[in-house]
Every structure is written in structure tokens, then in C-alpha cells.
């Protein structure tokens, strides 16, 4: 993201977008937004999307820029072309890409929110992007000296057993960096049949081909990607895009074994085309992402999970390094720092933590504990990073600040010196969360308060790689005073550990954890902590409460209103009057509070007040019941429904101008035929009305009742009326004909009644 993104004073464009996103979908959903998501473009250059979010089976990139950023008249030609390459590479990866301008978010927030609803859906299925484990680099494994880990042997045994049961498709869920590809290649080699391996990036395809070549030396291995079309090899490693575009180049039975990498994308159209075309004897999906509920659950496709491996297990089996932790308490008060659902207000935060006492504590801690160890200090800003690095250099230790705003050449030089030990300390604010790796890192300082689980876990991942001579990763958590609702993440909070002993392992093998438990029980320090001035008898209870986790199982006020068949004003009034009590209130600021409700609270309110509960399962039936029982003080409801069915697109959306034109034609047509148009007080009977007056009339009556029942919605800035998607997509042709027939019958009876009144 360019530096021009710093918008209003005290607020970045990223913060502004998060606020608009939260207003649109609920603050608890903003935790699914992944800021500065790292990816590779088609030339394998490092790139960062401003935001990435997964919605069902789709990955969606969101870019925020000022108006000048992509205007070829205002930026250099190279910069313009580079921006196009970035966007095109996202599309090549199969992502949807949406862009908004800073000024647009500032001046037209309602438009941005309406567009978000249209692009992402009114009831989206957001989910966590990935497992966020540190990537392990490919190791040069030869077939002759390959030693499989126990989890790989277990997975292979499970796959063999599944085939004995005549099962033909399976999924392996192993954490990133734990050898999924090696497991798959070993299984394919054991089967010994022609194999197709599918992945979604050039790098993954190339890495897989190299692994096949090393481990299965007596067969030919080809690449089917871009200009390379080695389709006749015994093993073909292809990109999903290239294979999906050229399935006609292959016979559907050409391959006996099909491997789908990053299988959590398998519901996407390109993957589905491949899965439906080829007819292998066995299909294996690989993923680091656990199966999750979305538009199409991954297990709906892969049926069975052959083997699982999560981050805790990855450490337990020695695939990632064990982790110790020391908590350093500061006297900094964050309780008054403003925050949205996932981020602190940067100006408030900097004013609190960019103080000499806290900076001195960070530097003193480094010098006292780990001045001889390779350390990464995560800081809150570029200024903060530069200040800490300067103070460490003053104490005689080589240290440098690094950030995304530096020139790439200078940044890479610093990172190389750190890797080779010439620089002992890196102070980073926004660069090392993703896309960089140094297994030799021994110590992490978490000196940047963050409410983002994603960001904290990314930072942790920079130190969890295995390295020769590295027994454990030491994490220093700088713990500032905060309220229950704006508490920053710490290692213990991340792992939900309520007890803290200084230096004790937080993650480790079962034996390591047992040994630590025994030592601390006796009040003894582990040998690894001899040089650390901590007492093994110290103990602290940790508050691991996380409002986002609590809210994940509750209904927001927005969702509560969507679930009952009464007007939103009624629910809001009942809450104000204390007739409905929220189960959790999250104070974002002095003037803004989030209210959440348990399912039992919703059910109790519905029973007490005689409300009908609405969900995606019964919404269509309730809509049909509403049409069948339609009461009519005017003739507007049938006319509105007929206008919608006459002009709706495939998604059930109709420009309101089309509805206004339909109303005008309908009532003026009645008058032209000598029929009564409406009651005398109706503007459609009086005539002489403007389109704006007709629009106001339609939105007040009859639209309002359908809106209150969550059956129709009005996207004001786009001028669109939309049928609730869970209603529209489930209506059969027969039901649509029934609705139109009911509308005609109701209208006829209504006009018969007013003709004689």
C-alpha cells in the first residue's frame, strides 16, 4: 500500500476501511480481514494485497488507493504498469479484486458499504484465511535417504487402509511446513500409476515437480504451466489455471492418481472443472487449513480426512521449534486507547507507547537477557523501530530498523546481514510478518500491541523455524495495562494458557513439557534459563478472555434483528427499554458499544413476544406465506412483486427506476382503460406526481413491510431493490408462477372492493 493511504489525521485508510466493513457486516467479522497479505506475482516477485478475505470458497483482494495511484496521467508509466501487473496477478491466482479510493471512503461511506454488500453478499460466509504457520523451505531430500516422520507414516497407512475399503478420494490436513507434498509423492510412487499434481501458484508447481524428481527418479516429470506444456510426462505438475483451460489436451482417464494442493480452494470453478473432468482411481487433497463450514464444505468434496496435524502437534513432533516465554509488564495504560474491532487507533497508540520509559524497558530487557542472540523486535511504527534500533546501537550492539517503506535493495542488504550474523537485532514494524524467513532467529520481542490474532501469529511464525543448534524460540511479551475488551494478544492468550511461569515452555514436545512441569513444580529453573534472571517460583494468572472469540458464538444486534419477523425499530426499542438484555456489551469507545446475544436470548424473546424466528432454511417459506396471506390496504404490494419479477436480473436485483416505471405504467394504464386507479388519496389516483414522489411512496409502502421481514432490501446509493438471496435462489419456477397468480387474484379482489366502496 502506498504512503498516500494515510488519510484523515489520526486515522489511516486501512482503519477507515475496517470501520466501513464493520458497519456493513458487523465488527466481529472484521477479524477475517487479512491486512497486507503476502503473495507472489507471476514473476515470483513479493507482493502485498491491502486486504484479503475468504468468502466461502472465494479469495477476495481489496485494494485501497488515492485517485492518483492508478491514473496513468499522474504516475510514471512503470508504476502504472507495475500496478496493473499486481492486479492481473491476483486475478491469475483466481481471486476477485475490488478497489476503493480513500476520498471515496471519506466522502461517500454509504456508497462503499452498499457496494460491499453487493460484491461480497448481504450474508457472506467469511472464514479464516489459513493456518498461519511459518513456511518451511523445501529440503533437498533424496529417495535413498528419505526418512519419513511418524505423522507421514500414519497418513500413508491411513490412505492405504482407505483404498482397501475401496474409497477413492481423501484429504490430508497437515500444518504448513510438515511435509504434505513429500507424503503425497511417496503415496503416488507407492501406487506407481500415472499422476497429475495440481497447484495454484508457479512456485508450488515448480516445488512439487522438484520433489517428484528427487523422490521418484525412474519416471519422467513434466510441468504444465504457462508456456511449458509437458503433457506427456508420466507425472505432470500443472497450474490449476493452465490445466482447467486445456482439459481437452488430456484424456479423462489419462491419470490414475490426482493430487490437489491447497484443497480448501476445491469448490472454486477452476478446480471443479478439473475434478469433474478427470476420472482417476484415487484423488488426494492436501491442505494446511482445517475443514470449515462454508458454501461447500471441503469434506463435501473430499469425503474423508485421512490425517490431521495442527500447530501444537507440529511442535510436539519436532517439525517446528519449541517456544518459551517471558512476560515483561510495563506501566503503560492502553485502557483509553480507541479501537475498532481489530486495530488500535494508531495516533492514540503511538501517544501511549512511544515514551522513553517503555523504550528504555525494551532496550534494557534486550541487553540484560539476550544481547548475544539473534533477535527480532516488532515495533508499532517506523519511528518506533528506528528509535529502538538507535538506542541498541548506542549500547554497542549492531541493530537496524527495517520497514516496507525502505528501498528494496537497502532492505534486502539489511536482512542478508542479519541472516549472516553481522547485524544482531532487527527492529521491524510492518515487514517481517510475512514473506521473510530466517530460521536462525532465536528471540522475538513482541513490543507492538496488537488486537489481531493473525498479526500476532504471523510475527510468532518468524521465529518458529527449525535451525541447527537452536533448542527453542524465546518470546518476550511486553504486557501493557488494558481493559478486558481492548487487551492486546500475548502468547499465553493466543494459546489460551491461564497460568504463566517465567521462561517455561508454552509449546513443546510432550516429553519437553513434562520435564518443564516437573522442574517448575520443584521450584527449579530449566538449564536453558540459567543465564536468565528469572525465578522459577514466580507465577501469574493470565486473563485469556477474548471478546472476538466470545462473540463468534453469539448474535450481533444486526443479526438478532435479521432473525425475527418484526420491525428493527421494535427490537431496538425493546433493548433500550430493558425488555431484551444483551449477553455481552463491548465498549469500542465512549459513544459506541457493540451488543451481542446468545441464541437462548433470541429464542426466549421470540417466545415471550410471539415473534417468528427466521433463518435461511425457512425464509423462503415465510416469504411464500407472506405473499399468500398478503393484507391490502392499498394495491401496492402485488404491483411491487410483479414489477420485481418483470425486471429482476439473475440475482434478484432490480433498479428502482424500473419499478417506478412499472408502477406508473400500471396505474396510468388502468386510468386509460376507464378503471379506478386507486383510492382517492393515493398519488397514483391523483396523478401529477414526479418519479421521486413515486419512489418515496414505494419505499414507504409497500416496500417497508417486506424489508422488515428481511425479504427485500434497498441498496440506496446504487438505486437497487434486491430480493433476499436465500429467498430468490430457492424459488422454483412453479412458486414464481404461483406468486404472480396470487398477485393477480389479490389485485382483482382489492379493486372489486374499492369499486363498490
TrEMBL record:
Q: Which InterPro entries match?
A: Helicase/UvrB_N, Helicase_ATP-bd, Helicase_C-like, Helicase_Restrict-Modif_Enz, P-loop_NTPase
Q: Name one GO molecular function term.
A: hydrolase activity
Alphabetically sorted, this entry's keywords are:
ATP-binding, Helicase, Hydrolase, Nucleotide-binding
Q: What is this protein called?
A: DEAD/DEAH box helicase
Question: In which organism is this protein found?
Answer: Ruminococcus difficilis
Q: Which residues form the Helicase ATP-binding domain?
A: 161-308
Residues covered by the Helicase C-terminal domain: 362-508
Q: Which Gene3D superfamilies match?
A: P-loop containing nucleotide triphosphate hydrolases
| GO cellular component annotations of the record | cytosol
What SUPFAM superfamilies does the database record attribute to this sequence?
Answer: P-loop containing nucleoside triphosphate hydrolases
Amino acid at each position: 500500500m502506498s504512503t498516500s493511504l494515510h488519510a484523515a489525521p489520526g486515522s489511516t485508510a486501512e482503519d477507515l476501511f475496517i470501520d466501513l466493513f464493520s458497519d456493513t457486516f458487523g465488527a466481529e467479522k472484521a477479524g477475517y480481514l487479512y491486512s497486507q497479505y503476502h503473495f507472489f506475482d507471476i514473476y515470483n516477485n513479493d507482493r502485498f494485497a491491502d486486504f484479503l478475505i475468504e468468502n466461502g470458497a472465494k479469495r477476495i483482494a481489496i485494494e485501497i488507493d488515492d485517485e492518483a495511484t492508478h491514473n496513468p496521467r499522474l504516475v510514471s508509466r512503470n508504476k502504472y504498469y507495475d500496478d496493473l501487473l499486481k492486479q492481473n496477478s491476483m486475478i491469475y491466482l483466481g481471486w476477485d479484486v475490488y478497489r476503493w479510493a480513500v476520498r471515496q471512503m471519506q466522502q461517500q461511506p454509504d456508497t462503499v458499504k452498499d457496494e460491499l454488500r453487493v460484491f461480497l453478499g448481504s450474508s457472506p460466509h467469511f472464514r479464516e484465511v489459513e493456518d498461519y504457520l511459518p513456511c518451511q523451505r523445501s529440503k533437498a531430500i533424496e529417495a535413498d535417504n528419505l526418512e519419513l516422520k511418524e505423522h507421514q507414516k500414519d497418513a500413508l497407512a491411513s490412505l492405504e487402509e482407505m483404498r482397501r475399503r475401496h474409497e477413492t478420494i481423501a484429504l490430508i490436513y497437515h500444518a504448513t511446513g510438515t511435509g504434505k507434498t513429500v507424503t503425497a509423492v511417496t503415496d503416488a510412487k507407492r501406487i506407481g500409476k500415472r499422476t497429475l499434481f495440481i497447484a495454484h501458484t508457479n512456485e508450488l508447481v515448480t516445488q512439487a515437480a522438484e520433489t517428484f524428481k528427487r523422490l521418484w527418479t525412474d519416471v519422467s516429470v513434466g510441468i504444465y504451466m504457462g508456456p511449458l506444456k509437458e503433457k506427456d510426462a508420466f507425472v505432470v505438475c500443472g497450474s490449476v489455471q493452465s490445466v482447467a483451460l486445456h482439459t481437452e489436451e488430456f484424456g479423462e482417464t489419462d491419470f490414475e492418481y490426482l493430487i490437489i494442493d491447497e484443497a480448501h480452494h476445491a469448490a472454486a470453478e477452476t478446480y471443479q472443472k478439473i475434478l469433474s473432468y478427470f476420472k482417476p482411481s484415487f484423488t488426494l487433497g492436501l491442505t494446511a487449513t482445517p475443514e470449515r463450514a462454508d458454501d461447500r464444505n471441503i469434506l463435501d468434496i473430499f469425503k474423508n480426512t485421512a490425517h490431521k496435524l495442527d500447530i501444537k502437534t507440529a511442535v510436539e513432533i519436532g517439525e517446528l521449534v519449541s517456544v518459551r516465554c517471558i512476560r515483561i509488564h510495563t506501566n503503560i495504560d492502553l485502557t483509553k486507547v480507541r479501537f475498532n474491532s481489530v486495530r488500535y487507533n494508531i495516533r492514540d497508540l503511538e501517544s501511549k507507547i512511544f515514551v522513553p520509559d517503555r523504550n528504555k524497558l525494551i532496550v534494557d530487557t534486550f541487553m540484560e537477557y539476550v544481547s548475544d542472540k539473534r533477535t527480532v523486535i516488532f515495533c508499532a511504527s517506523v519511528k518506533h523501530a528506528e528509535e529502538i534500533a538507535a538506542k541498541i546501537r548506542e549500547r554497542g550492539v549492531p541493530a537496524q530498523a527495517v520497514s516496507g517503506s525502505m528501498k528494496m535493495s537497502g532492505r534486502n542488504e539489511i536482512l542478508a546481514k542479519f541472516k549472516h550474523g553481522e547485524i544482531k537485532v532487527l527492529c521491524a514494524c510492518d515487514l517481517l510478518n510475512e514473506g521473510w524467513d530466517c530460521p536462525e532467529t532465536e528471540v522475538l520481542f513482541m513490543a507492538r500491541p496488537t488486537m489481531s490474532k493473525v498479526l500476532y501469529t504471523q510475527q510468532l511464525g518468524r521465529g518458529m523455524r527449525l535451525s541447527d543448534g537452536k533448542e527453542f524460540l524465546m518470546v518476550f511479551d511486553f504486557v501493557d495495562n488494558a481493559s478486558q475488551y481492548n487487551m492486546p494478544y500475548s502468547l499465553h492468550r493466543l494459546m489460551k494458557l491461564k497460568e504463566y511461569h517465567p521462561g517455561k515452555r508454552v509449546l513443546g514436545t510432550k516429553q519437553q513439557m513434562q520435564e518443564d512441569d516437573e522442574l517448575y513444580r520443584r521450584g527449579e529453573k530449566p538449564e536453558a534459563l540459567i543465564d536468565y534472571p528469572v525465578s522459577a517460583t514466580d507465577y501469574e494468572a493470565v486473563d485469556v478472555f477474548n471478546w472476538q472469540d466470545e462473540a463468534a458464538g453469539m448474535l450481533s444486534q444486526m443479526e438478532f434483528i435479521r432473525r425475527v419477523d418484526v420491525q428493527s425499530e421494535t427490537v431496538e426499542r425493546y433493548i433500550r427499554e430493558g425488555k431484551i438484555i444483551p449477553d455481552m456489551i463491548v465498549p469500542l469507545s465512549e459513544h459506541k458499544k457493540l451488543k451481542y446475544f446468545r441464541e437462548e436470548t433470541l429464542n426466549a424473546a421470540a417466545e415471550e413476544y410471539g415473534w417468528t424466528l427466521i433463518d435461511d432454511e425457512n425464509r423462503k417459506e415465510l416469504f411464500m406465506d407472506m405473499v399468500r396471506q398478503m393484507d391490502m390496504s392499498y394495491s401496492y404490494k402485488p404491483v411491487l412483486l410483479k414489477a420485481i419479477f418483470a425486471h429482476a436480473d439473475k440475482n434478484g436485483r432490480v433498479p428502482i427506476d424500473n419499478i417506478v416505471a412499472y408502477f406508473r405504467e400500471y396505474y396510468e394504464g388502468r386510468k386509460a382503460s376507464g378503471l379506478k386507479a386507486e383510492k382517492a388519496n393515493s398519488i397514483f389516483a391523483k396523478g401529477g406526481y414526479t418519479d421521486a414522489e413515486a419512489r418515496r411512496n414505494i419505499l414507504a409502502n409497500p416496500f417497508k413491510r417486506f424489508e422488515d421481514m428481511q425479504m427485500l432490501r434497498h441498496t440506496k446509493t446504487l438505486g437497487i431493490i434486491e430480493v433476499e438471496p436465500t429467498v430468490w435462489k430457492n424459488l422454483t419456477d412453479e412458486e414464481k408462477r404461483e406468486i404472480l397468480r396470487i398477485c393477480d387474484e389479490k389485485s382483482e379482489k382489492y379493486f372489486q372492493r374499492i369499486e363498490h366502496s
